[in-house]
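Example 229, ligand adenosine-5'-triphosphate.
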Amino acid sequence: MTQGTAGAVVKTAPAVCIDGVSLTYQERQVIRDFSLTVSGGSSVALMGKSGSGKSSVLSMVLGLLKPDSGEIRVGAIDVIRASQRSLTAMRRTRIGVVFQSGELVEDLTPVENVAVAGMLGGQSRDQATAEAVSWLSKLGVPTDVVRTSDLSGGEQQRVAVARALMGGPSLLIADEPTASLDSDTRDQIADAIFALPAQTGAALIIATHDRDVAARADRTVHLEEGDRS
Ligand SMILES: Nc1ncnc2c1ncn2[C@@H]1O[C@H](COP(=O)(O)OP(=O)(O)OP(=O)(O)O)[C@@H](O)[C@H]1O
């Protein structure tokens, strides 16, 4: 990301480049020759029927799953050939992830749930706590709550968004982040997530079944079903 003279975020080199990727599970090809490039500061909604491979694409970008063929880059990192160590560092420092369920530790405070991501990324406890409080406040989550499980579902999902933002990732990946929410809360979470590319220069890839959520993205990409035989 670079800043223009007026402080506006200028879109630069692709944050993610997926080129001609195919994936087979147990002899069944689920993704065939899929390509997608996403620039910093822009958003893409990944749509497709259940089982079309949306989560698998996200797992491949995270380096958790290797395709049979094709290339994947996150910034300058060759995700397919990178060592496990580099991939772990990439996930901790460059990529923020939000899942459907939030995956928070119920007994920790919201601040602790968020700060832990900063500490894994190399921040001191004090730095991480200060950044966690800042993101939670920006996202309108109370920071004086003792147990994260005491928050509402929408607040918990905002905690998950705050956690994904720790350390200023260049890529944000969201897998059905609004699936379990009522429509008002869904809109609040979508507002928070879709504001990020413009605010921070991060690229956003969001997998969703929700057409209203997808409509907020700069582009929508439909995954075709692979080999169903
Ligand atoms: N570990 C696995 N072993 C075998 N098949 C798998 C595995 N993981 C996923 N699949 C299959 O790969 C296909 C794609 O799954 P994936 O979860 O990526 O789809 P999706 O589009 O995210 O689905 P949904 O919208 O239901 O979340 C599905 O048919 C699924 O059953």
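Summary: The domain at 14-220 is CATH 3.40.50.300 (Rossmann fold).
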